[in-house]
Amino acid sequence: MIRAVLIDNEPLALHYFQNKLHAFQQIQVIQTFTSVEVFLNELPSMEFEAIFLEVKLQELSGLEVADIIKTERPQVSVIFITAYHEFALQAYEIGSLDYVLKPISHARLEKTVARIEHEFSIQQMLQQASQTVLNVQCFNQFAVYSNNSLVAFKTEKTKELFAYFILHPNIPIHRDYLIEILWPDLDYVRAKSNLHTALSYLRKTLNTIGYENCIVFSNKYYIFEKPNIVCDLYDFQKLHEDFSRLEIPSISLINQCLSIYKNGLFVFDDYEWATAYKDKLMKSYIELLEKGFQTTIFSDTERAMEFLHALIEYDPYNEQKLEHYLYTLIQAGLHEQALKIFQTYKQKLEEDLALSPSSTLLEISKKLFAQHK
Domains (ranges, CATH) in the chain? Predict the structure, then answer.
């Protein structure tokens, strides 16, 4: 949630703009002001990520207020909402994120909110990076970096053990369970010895890069007490929580999640215990693609088709979903695209599996395309 403050001398204009922002669930208006003096008095006690203000204000101009904000809190996004176009250059020179002219359309405000979200995510990543030296990459190939240098683990099992801890932070894990998943083919005594060796190597590696005592053992259980690290998986989980909470998530939020996911979890690491976790994340990935497709189908055809092709690539033989996609394309007036998608599916089914589409899908497609020739 991005906390925002609004400043405008006109109470009606302030109320009107606040109502327009209500359409964006990712923005929380925490305070509004008609007085610059009152705002500056309360500024030290307020925490916010964005400020919307008018250029023409009493006491001080909006430009002067923006200059104070960017000097004291450079990470705050400043957005001018005004009827005066002639101050735009000065506003951008101060460091404002956007300059929006009244009257404000929903489409224009949507672009502004997307810019705020992008800036907010960058600030969060910079803040995280400044507080830690360890960066863990889980998507594509599992890799760990300390101060931008690749961390070398003593053995592959040591690395795999750390990967398991990363996926299960702050959770008590029984010693015998770790033995079972990491050394399933060894006898218990030897596997237990291997676990102790791997843990010793892992603790030494973490201690060397400044992460001491983050693996705790108590009553046959190990707990990886998650230290302050940067991890793409944790970033994805947080963003996906935001996505799931919002009724209408923004395209920028969807794109952020997709850019982190890349090709999936541990793509180049054969960790059998991670299969269920991979499947769960893939379901989240497909959910993101479907929402992206639904959101852009009427506004950005090119992007919508990119989402659709990615969906079909991950689930190429699902006729029920294909039927839904075809109906959606037809409703959006994209008849040629729908026909091309169906023909491609039909050809792939014949070439890969020597099968034909079901009679139901053939009948549905026939009716669909007959209606829109």
Answer: 2-130 (3.40.50.2300), 134-228 (1.10.10.10), 316-373 (no CATH)
